[in-house]
Amino acid sequence: MVKKITEELANNHTFKNYIVFWIGQLFSVLGSSISQFAIIWWITDTTGSTILLSLASFLYVLPMTIVVALSGVVIDKWNRKTLIVVVDSLQAYVMLLVIIIFNIGGQNLILIVAIMSLLGIFQGFHIPTVSAIVPTMVPKEKLSRMNGVNFFFRSFIQIMGPVIGALMFSFMPLKTILWIDPLTFIIALIPLLVIKIPKIKREDANIEKNSFLEDFKIGFRTLKSIPLVFMMLLISMFINFLLTPFNILMPYFIRYNHSGDPSNLAFLLAFMNGGMLLGALLTTIKKEWKHALFIYFGLEFILMMNSGIVAITPFRLFLMMGIVVGITGITIPILNTIYLTIMQLKVPADKMGRLSSLDWAISSAITPIATIIAGPLSEIIGVSNLFLSFSIIGMIITLILWWIAHTRVNNNNKKKTFEETVFSSAI
C-alpha cells in the first residue's frame, strides 16, 4: 500500500516541480536565518539575562509544538500548496509588523516576543506540511539522496545566514537587517505559485467523515506499527530536551562567559553548519547505511558528549569550540537522513501529514519545558554547569535506550534484522 501510493504520485515530472519549490524554500531559509540571528543577538545584548532569553524561546517553541501536534490532520485534508502559501504569507506579514515596530522606535521586548510567538504558530503548520509533500513528489529511489542534498544546501545557507547577519550588524541597524526576511519570502513564493503539488486521493470515502480525534488516533496507530521508529522518536525527545539549554543559551554563553561578540557567535555557527554541510555531503554519496540502529544511537551519544566538551572549554578558545560543534554538525544530517528515509518509505502518503506532525510533536514534546527552566537553572548553577550536567544525563539516557532497542531487535523472531528489513532495497 505504501509503495503503491508513493509510486502513483511521485515521478520525474513531480520531482522537477519539487526542485523548483525546494530552491525557492532555500531562499526563504536564508532570510529567516539572518533575521533570527539578528533578533536573538538583540535580545541577548539588550537584556543580558538568561531568564529572558529562555522565556523568549519558550514563547516561540510552545505554540509551535502545540500546533505541530494538531496540524497533521489539517495537512492531510486540506490542499497542501494552499496551506503553505497561506502560512508563509502570514509569517511575512508578521515580520513586516516587527520591522514597523523597530522603525517607529517601539521595540519593547515583551511586544516583540509576543509577536514572534505568532511565527511559532505558523511554523507549526509549515514544517510538517513541507515534510509531508516530499514523498508525493520525490520518487522512492531518490528519497535518501534528496534528503541528503536538502541537508547539504540548507547547511550551506545556514552557514551564510549568521555570517551575513554578523557582517550586516557592523554597518547597519537591526531594523534594516530584518527586511531580508520578507524579501526572500517573495522570492520563495514565486516558484510555489507556478508549480503543481499533487493532491492525495483518499481511497476510502468514509475517511473524510472521520472526526478530528479519530484522524489523530489513526496517526498514532500508524506510528505504533513501526515500533523501532517510535523508539528512535523517544531518544530524539530526550535529546532535544537536554540540548535545548545549549541551543538557546549559546549566545549568552559566548557573550558573557567568554566575552564574545556577534562575530564569535557567527564563527561557531559557521563551524556547526559547516559540519552539517560535510555530513549532508556524506549522505548524498553513501547509498546504504548498515547497522543503522547502532549508528543512530551512537551519533546521539556523540551529540550529548560534545555539549559537555563545549561547557568546559577554556576561556575564549573559540577554535576548540568550533571544532567540537563542527563534529556535532556532521552527525545531524546523518541522523535525520536515516530516520526520515525510513519514515517516508514506510508511511502511506495519505497519512504522511499526520505522521510528520506526530514525529515533530513527540520529538519536541518536552522541549518547551526545557526552554522555560533553562534560564532559572543557569542562574542557580551557571550556564557551563548546566551544559555539563545535561550532557552527562543525555549520555546515560542514550545508552539505556540503545540497550532496550538493541534487545528488541535481538529478540525479534523474524529472520531479518531491522536494518535488513528497512535498508535492503530502499536506500
What brief labels describe this structure?
single chain; 427 residues; mainly alpha; Growth Hormone, Chain: A; 18 helices; 0% strand; disordered C terminus
Structure description:
- The chain is mostly helical and 427 residues long.
- It has one domain (2-194, 212-423): Up-down Bundle (Growth Hormone, Chain: A).
- The protein contains 18 helices and no strands.
- It has helices spanning 2-9, 12-47, 50-77, 80-103, 109-137, 143-169, 174-177, 180-194, 212-224, 227-248, 250-257, 262-285, 292-311, 318-346, 352-363, 367-381, 383-410, 418-423.
- α6 (143-169) runs antiparallel to α12 (262-285) and α10 packs antiparallel against α17.
- The longest helix has 36 residues, at 12-47.
- It is globular, with a radius of gyration of 21 Å.
Quick take:
The chain has helices at 2-9, 12-47, 50-77, 80-103, 109-137, 143-169, 174-177, 180-194, 212-224, 227-248, 250-257, 262-285, 292-311, 318-346, 352-363, 367-381, 383-410, 418-423. It has 427 residues and is mainly α. It has a single domain (2-194, 212-423), classed as Growth Hormone, Chain: A.
Topology:
Elements (H helix, E strand, L loop, with lengths): L1 H8 L2 H36 L2 H28 L2 H24 L5 H29 L5 H27 L4 H4 L2 H15 L17 H13 L2 H22 L1 H8 L4 H24 L6 H20 L6 H29 L5 H12 L3 H15 L1 H28 L7 H6 L4
Helix pairs in contact: 2-3, 2-5, 2-6, 2-8, 3-5, 3-15, 3-16, 4-5, 4-8, 5-15, 6-12, 6-14, 10-13, 10-16, 10-17, 12-14, 13-14, 13-17, 16-17
